[in-house]
Structure formats: structure tokens, C-alpha cells
Design goal:
This protein is an alpha/beta fold. It has two domains: about 130 residues, Rossmann fold (3-Layer(aba) Sandwich), CATH 3.40.50; about 60 residues, Winged helix-like DNA-binding domain superfamily/Winged helix DNA-binding domain (Arc Repressor Mutant, subunit A, Orthogonal Bundle). Helix content is about 50%, strand content about 15%. A five-stranded parallel β-sheet has the order 2-1-3-4-5, with helices on both faces. Strand 1, helix 1 and strand 2 form a beta-alpha-beta unit. Helix 4 runs parallel beside helix 10, helix 7 packs across helix 10 and helix 8 crosses helix 9. The protein is elongated.
Length: about 210
């Protein structure tokens, strides 16, 4: 039995989620919390869950801060993000803070069940946000060997991809034209077999180009 905790400030949503998760059979919701501070309080009273289903936008202590706290204080707990936020910056920041998976709140129950299983058994799940090849690399703790083939400019660009700067702002920071940034992005999409900025950021994180 996999124990799950829910951290979301919407009580009705938590109640519905708890019912869905408990109906899966192999999963049990052991406690709920409406923000990060409440979650930490609950940890003192309950056994650590295996997986935490984490929202991002919450009062007092949001998902970003709570996930980072878990990474630093209870690293055995795996965080699966369940959020309405689908922008690259939010996804990248949650991954940097230690999240092991990221799904959207409009996902179907079977997607949630698959995500819980993958996070529990393999340690990582991102649905289609990151390419299957990159997810495999992260799961197995492998490197592709491609990092050594990257130019200094490409490595610098990958680092900037892990920030909240726009591509135009990255061009200014790197003192190159926006068109040059577009070329870097396209070349890296092909080299690293990904189609998103999240994929580029995850490569940079996994290969130690940035510290998390």
C-alpha cells in the first residue's frame, strides 16, 4: 500500500481527490493539509507519506517553498505536482525544488493513477511535458554523453533556460541577437531530443550545469 498526502487549499478538491485515490486500491490518503505549514504540522502527527500530491498556489507556504522544504528535510518523500499552472517557469521551478512529477488538474483519473505509480516505483513522472528519452535518462541516473559535445554558448544558454527570463532577455544577457538565441534553442531541441524549454532546463539540472 502506497501512502499519499494531499496538500491543497481547496477542501472540496481534496475530498474529491481522496475519494479517487482511495478507489485505486493500492493507494491510501493518510492525511490532508491546506498549505505547507499545515503539512509540516501534520508530519509531526503522522507517519511520513510515500508520495505528496502538491498544489502550487496556496496561502502562507506555497508549493514551491513546501517542495523545497521536503527536499531538504524529508527527501524520501516524493512530490507529485498537481496544478492548474502549465507555464514553463512554474514547472522548471518545481522540478528544481525537488518535484518528481508534474500533472495538471484537468488530467483524467487514469493519468493520475499512472503518475502515482511511476513516481512511487520509478521515482519520476512528467507525462508529455518532457520527452520520454529525457525522463528515462533521469530515472536511470544516466547521462547521454551529449553534455561534452555542447559549445560554451549552448551551455550558457541552458543555464539561462533555468531562470524566469524570457528568450529576449536571455539574448540581452548573452549579448547576442534574438535570432541567435532562436538558433541555439532549435539546435539544442534537436541535440537533446526535446521540444520544450522544460526539457532543456531538466537536461541542465541533470548534468550539473546549474545547482539546485
Amino acid at each position: 500500500m502506497t501512502n499519499v498526502a494531499l496538500v491543497d487549499d481547496h477542501a472540496l478538491l481534496r475530498s474529491g481527490l481522496a475519494g479517487v485515490i482511495n478507489s485505486f486500491g493500492d493507494y491510501k490518503v493518510v492525511f490532508e493539509a491546506d498549505n505547507g505549514k499545515h503539512f509540516i504540522e501534520q508530519l509531526k502527527k503522522n507517519e511520513n507519506p510515500d508520495v505528496v500530491l502538491m498544489d502550487i498556489t496556496m496561502p502562507e507556504m506555497d508549493g514551491f517553498e513546501t517542495t523545497k522544504w521536503i527536499k531538504n528535510n524529508a527527501p524520501d518523500i516524493k512530490v507529485l505536482v498537481l496544478s492548474m499552472m502549465d507555464d514553463d517557469n512554474s514547472i522548471i521551478k518545481m522540478l528544481q525544488n525537488g518535484a518528481k512529477g508534474y500533472i495538471l488538474k484537468d488530467s483524467k483519473p487514469d493519468v493520475l493513477r499512472t503518475a502515482l505509480r511511476e513516481v512511487s516505483e520509478k521515482g519520476f513522472f512528467l507525462n508529455d511535458i518532457v520527452s520520454a528519452k529525457l525522463v528515462h535518462m533521469i530515472n536511470k541516473g544516466e547521462t547521454t554523453g551529449k553534455e561534452t559535445e555542447l559549445s560554451d554558448k549552448e551551455k550558457e544558454f541552458l543555464k539561462w533556460c533555468c531562470t524566469d527570463k524570457s528568450y529576449k532577455e536571455i539574448a540581452e544577457e548573452m549579448h547576442i541577437s534574438p535570432r541567435a538565441v532562436e538558433a541555439l534553442r532549435s539546435n539544442l531541441f534537436e541535440k537533446l531530443d526535446t521540444l520544450s524549454r522544460v526539457g532543456l532546463a531538466m537536461y541542465a539540472i541533470r548534468n550539473g550545469l546549474v545547482k539546485v
